[in-house]
From TrEMBL:
It comes from the Bacteria. The keyword Cell membrane does not apply. GO terms for molecular function: glucose-1-phosphate thymidylyltransferase activity. This is Glucose-1-phosphate thymidylyltransferase. Its EC number is 2.7.7.24. Keywords: Nucleotidyltransferase, Transferase. It comes from Effusibacillus consociatus. The lineage of its organism: Bacteria, Bacillati, Bacillota, Bacilli, Bacillales. It is an enzyme of class 2 (transferase). Residues 2-233 form the Nucleotidyl transferase domain. The keyword Nucleotidyltransferase applies. Pfam families: NTP_transferase.
Amino acid sequence: MKGLILCGGRGTRLRPFSHSRPKHLLPVANQPVIQYAIDKIRKAGIEEIGIVVPPHFKSRFEELLGYGNEEVSLQYIEQHEAKGIADAVQTAREFIGNDSFLLFLGDNFYSGDLDELVRRYQHDKPEALLLVSHVPNPSQFGVVQFEGARIVRVVEKPKNPPSSYAIIGIYLFSPSIFEAIYDLSPSSRGEYEITDAIQGLIDKGYTVTALPADVWWKDTGQPKNLLTCNRQVLLELRGETYGPDVNIESSTIEGPVIIEAGAQVVDSIIRGPAVIGAGARIIRSYIGPFTSIGDNVCMEDSEIENSIVLEKTSILKISKRIDESIIGGEVKLEASRGYPRSLRVILGDHSIMYLPLDDE
């Protein structure tokens, strides 16, 4: 069995971050979203993983993830045009060969293990096994309809859902799925839908089943969801972990924290759960709960909580506490005492900035 992680798409809901990096490489607790998927697939006993990527971002994946290690190998497969999940799967046809495979949508965060899913597939040997979850808003997902244990219908984002069980972006397939993809036509969205391919298997009489999941999961394709995932991961921290050459002076550390190699914390307060990246400098500042500070961030005379700050950013002398924010890499956020006392900003396309109203 092989693993396949899809990392295509334009990431429009995560602009401006997705202009310069794929959304799957954005950090949750200072680790790329996709790394959680790789770790779970590896722990399920799968040693070969293909990652479908857009050509212009391939080097970013290679630089950050490499090609695996002694436990798992990574291979990058280019999808030249984003034409839907089924099309992305088809691009990996040569990599998959005649093996069954676990498909994982790369912007999904799933808190459970995949062992039971793999065991169920190997025991029952259906043509497809889908991980599904009861949701309050099924019309926003691909939804399944059951007859007994079998799935008899799959529909993408239906106005009248046949059930409350949504497909959450993790699947197990036999190579028969490629036959179903070959027969597809584009949907009304102009994409080749994986739900249509699964329905094609059903229509041909193949067995398609589901495993209900009762653990926490989230699509990280929006900023608020990325912050939610960051919070969820940090909730699992226990104790204090310090990397080598960490320097802490005249500071208070409370709650579970990770402070990575070479970080400095001087005259500051850190209240976990929180992660401070390698080489970060926290000077006369407050880091509140559920905050991830990236590598080589410099923060002086400022306060932040419930937020994610990416690498090499400077936050200097900000008088108001930053909350529920995502701040990109190599950003400079600095207060000025010069005149005129005006607000000066340089914001790229699709940026968002919320400013508190002054009290009257």
